[in-house]
Amino acid sequence: MDRHRLEDQRHFETAIKEIPEILDCWAIGGRIDYLMRVSSPSMATYQEFMEGLLQAGLGIDQYYSLVVTKPVKANSPIPLSSLKRR
User: Fold this and answer.
1) Which end of the chain is more exposed for a tag (fewer CB within 10 A), N or C?
2) Where in the chain does DSSP place strands (E)?
């Protein structure tokens, strides 16, 4: 984000919730403010989508893209029994 005011975060988060291509969005700590999972039929379409987000006035300063090349392990259940206090 280009600014970190609460009103800017709320504006971004409200807008993101209405965009169907964004499947998930998490606010995270550290150097990067948000992590999003985006659905796109092609890399060209994804690039157009991201360029549109940059121009949409949502306060996005820069973005980084990571592409999943293959699933290794996904949708594993949380092992609740191992989380019990002893």
Assistant:
1) C
2) 22-27, 34-38
Give φ, ψ of 55 to 5 degrees. Answer: -90, -5
Average pLDDT for the chain: 91
Q: How many CA atoms lie within 13 A of 67 on its CB side?
A: 7
- pTM here is 0.79
In this structure, what DSSP letter does residue 72 have?
A: S
Residue 1 lies in a domain: no
| Domain count for the chain | 1
Q: Which residues contact 25 (CB under 8 A, 6 or more apart)?
A: 13, 16, 17, 34, 35, 36, 37
Is residue 11 classed as helix, strand or coil in its secondary structure? Answer: helix
Q: Give residue-wise pLDDT tens across range 25-59.
A: 999 998 899 999 999 999 999 999 999 999 999 99
d(CA 10, CA 76): 31
